[in-house]
From TrEMBL:
Major location category of this protein: cytoplasm
Gene3D superfamilies tied to this protein: D-Amino Acid Oxidase, subunit A, domain 2 (3.30.9.10), FAD/NAD(P)-binding domain (3.50.50.60)
Keywords: Cytoplasm, FAD, Flavoprotein, FMN, Nucleotide-binding, Oxidoreductase
Family assignment from sequence similarity: Belongs to the SoxB family.
The reaction(s) this protein catalyses: sarcosine + O2 + H2O = formaldehyde + glycine + H2O2; sarcosine + (6S)-5,6,7,8-tetrahydrofolate + O2 = (6R)-5,10-methylene-5,6,7,8-tetrahydrofolate + glycine + H2O2
Lineage of origin: Bacteria, Pseudomonadati, Pseudomonadota, Alphaproteobacteria, Hyphomicrobiales
Domain Rhodanese: 34-78
Keyword Acetylation in annotation: no
Subcellular localization: Cytoplasm
UniProt-recorded name of the protein: Sarcosine oxidase subunit beta
PANTHER family the record matches: FAD-DEPENDENT OXIDOREDUCTASE DOMAIN-CONTAINING PROTEIN 1 (PTHR13847:SF287), SARCOSINE DEHYDROGENASE-RELATED (PTHR13847)
Length: 416
C-alpha cells in the first residue's frame, strides 16, 4: 500500500479500517542469499538498498529485539555533513543527499527537517580551526558559513555570550544540517525493504555463526539455524560480541552515550546548536521538548543506561551555554551502547573470513550516516568492491596506519 495524501483521505472516509500492517511478520526461511544481523538503521537500510538498487531480494534482517530498540531509536536525531577529512567528507555528504530524497524514495514520512546545525566557537584558535573545516567543506561542495558573534546573537539571543570563561565569538553553520525523526527512519526502511520482499524478523537473536571450510554458512538463532550465502554484521554497540562468534577481535570499545529531554517549551531554538567549550548540544523537538546530550560515559559498558556523573556534567555545560536552562525541568534520560572505534571513524568492509561482511564503529555519529552506510554496505555485499565514497573505511587501515582521526585524539575511543 502506497502512502499519499489521497490514501489518507480515502482511508479517513472509510473509517481508517483498511490500513494494512507496515511490514509482515514472517517466519524465517531455511536459507537466504544474504542474512543481515541487526535490525537497526544500518541493517535495515542495507537490506533496502540491496533489494532496491542491487536487485538482491532474497534477504533477511535478524533483530534480537524489536525494530528501533537499539541506537536508531535512542539517538538525538541530528544529521550533518560538516566534516574536515577527505575520507569522511564525501561519505557524509552522500548521506546528506540521500536524506534529502529519502521520504519520497521509501514513501514514508521521516520528518526530515533541514533546520541547520551551528557549532559555536569561543576562542581565536577555535575560530581558525572551524574556518579551516568550513573551507574544506566548501571545497567539497558542502554548504558552510562562518557567523560572527553578532550574527549568532541575532539568531539565538539567549545564549551565554558574555560567559567569563567561554565567551561566544561566533559559529560554523551548516544550513542543510538538521534533524530526522529517528525511529521513523527504522520504520521507513523496514517497510520499504519488506515491500521489496525482504524478511524482517524480530525477536530473533543470533547466538552463533556456523563455518565450514573457512566459509560462513549461516547463523544459529533463537529461532533455529538459518543458512546464509553471505552474512553481514550490523550490530552497532554489540559488534565486538557478534565478531567474537568467529573469534574476531575488532578495534572497538563499547561505551554508553546518554540523551536527555526536557519538559515542553514554546519554540525558541529553531536549529541544532553545539557548545564548543564543553560537551553539550541541543535542538528542540516538534513537541517542544529540548533534546540534548553530551559526551559518552567514560567507562566501557553494554548497559543501555548511564550514570549520574555524566548527567551532571551535561547539565553544567548546558547551563554554561544557555544560562536560562537552569530553570527548565529535565523530563527523562536514556542511554545507548556505542561502538567506539580507535580513530572515531567507521568500518565498512569484508572481513578476513569468506562471506562475512562488517559494518561497525559508528561511534556517536552513525545516525546521520544511516542512508550512506546502508547504500555503501549493500554495494560492497552485492559487488564485492567498496563504494568509492567508503573506500577509506577499511578494517585494515589501523594496521596500515591510515587512520581517519577527525578529532585528532589518537587511539582513545572514549575521546572521539
Ligand atoms: C544517546 C545517543 C545519541 C546519539 N545521537 C546521534 C546523533 O544526533 N546523530 C548521529 O548521527 N548519531 C547519533 N547517535 C549514534 C547513532 O544512533 C548510532 O551510531 C547508530 O544508530 C548505530 O547504527 P544502528 O542504527 O544500526 O544501530 P542499532 O539501532 O543499535 O542497531 C543494531 C541492532 O543490532 C541488534 N543486535 C545486536 N546483537 C544482535 C544479535 N546477536 N542478534 C540479532 N540482533 C542483534 C540490536 O538489538 C540493535 O537493534 C547517538 C546514539 C545515542 C545512543
Amino acid at each position: 500500500m502506497r502512502y499519499s495524501a489521497l490514501s489518507v483521505f480515502l482511508n479517513g472516509l472509510r473509517g481508517n479500517t483498511r490500513w494494512t500492517p507496515a511490514w509482515r511478520d514472517p517466519a524465517p526461511q531455511p536459507r537466504y542469499d544474504v542474512v543481515i544481523v541487526g535490525g537497526g538503521g544500518h541493517g535495515l537500510a542495507t537490506a533496502y538498498y540491496l533489494a532496491k538498487t542491487f536487485g538482491i531480494r532474497n534477504v533477511a534482517v535478524l533483530e534480537k529485539g524489536w525494530l528501533g530498540s537499539g541506537n536508531i531509536g535512542r539517538n538525538t536525531t541530528i544529521i550533518r555533513s560538516n566534516y574536515l577529512l577527505p575520507g569522511n567528507n564525501p561519505f557524509y555528504e552522500l548521506s546528506m543527499k540521500l536524506w534529502e530524497g529519502l521520504e519520497q524514495d521509501f514513501n514514508y514520512n521521516a520528518m526530515v527537517s533541514q533546520r541547520g546545525v551551528l557549532n559555536l566557537f569561543h576562542s581565536d584558535a577555535q575560530r581558525d580551526a572551524y574556518t579551516r573545516r568550513g573551507n574544506a567543506m566548501r571545497l567539497h561542495g558542502v554548504d558552510a558559513e562562518l557567523l560572527d558573534a553578532d550574527a549568532v546573537r541575532a539568531k539565538l539571543p539567549f545564549l551565554g555570550f558574555d560567559n567569563a570563561r567561554f565567551p561566544i565569538k561566533g559559529g560554523l553553520h551548516q544550513p542543510r544540517g538538521g534533524t530526522v525523526r529517528h525511529d521513523a527512519v527504522a520504520w521507513g526502511y523496514a517497510r520499504g525493504a519488506d515491500t521489496l520482499g525482504v524478511d524482517v524478523i524480530q525477536n530473533c537473536e543470533v547466538t552463533g555463526i556456523r563455518r565450514e571450510n573457512g566459509r560462513v554458512t549461516g547463523v544459529e538463532t533463537s529461532k533455529g539455524f538459518i543458512g546464509a550465502g553471505k552474512l553481514a554484521l550490523a550490530t552497532a554497540g554489540h559488534s565486538s560480541r557478534t565478531a567474537a562468534m568467529v573469534d574476531m577481535v575488532l578495534p572497538l570499545e563499547s561505551h554508553v552515550l546518554q540523551a536527555f529531554v526536557s519538559e515542553g517549551l514554546k519554540p525558541f531554538i529553531d536549529g541544532v546548536v553545539t557548545f564548543g567549550a564543553g560537551h553539550f548540544y541541543v535542538s528542540q523537538s516538534d513537541k517542544g521538548g529540548l533534546v540534548f546530550g553530551g559526551d559518552i560515559d567514560g567507562y566501557n559498558s553494554y548497559a543501555q543506561r548511564g550514570n549520574l556523573a555524566t548527567v551532571e556534567h551535561v547539565a553544567e555545560a548546558g547551563v554554561a551555554m544557555i544560562p536560562a536552562l537552569s530553570r527548565v525541568r529535565m523530563l527523562r534520560s536514556w542511554g545507548g551502547v556505542m561502538d567506539m572505534s580507535m580513530d572515531g571513524s567507521p568500518i565498512i568492509d569484508r572481513t578476513p573470513i569468506d562471506n562475512l561482511y562488517l559494518n561497525a564503529g559508528w561511534c556517536y555519529g552513525g545516525f546521520k550516516a544511516t542512508p550512506a552506510s546502508g547504500f555503501c554496505f549493500a554495494h560492497l555485499i552485492a559487488k564485492g568492491e567498496p563504494h568509492e565514497t567508503a573506500r577509506a573505511f577499511r578494517l585494515d587501515r589501523f594496521r596500515r596506519g591510515y587512520a581517519i582521526d577527525e578529532k585528532g585524539q589518537g587511539a582513545q575511543p572514549n575521546l572521539h
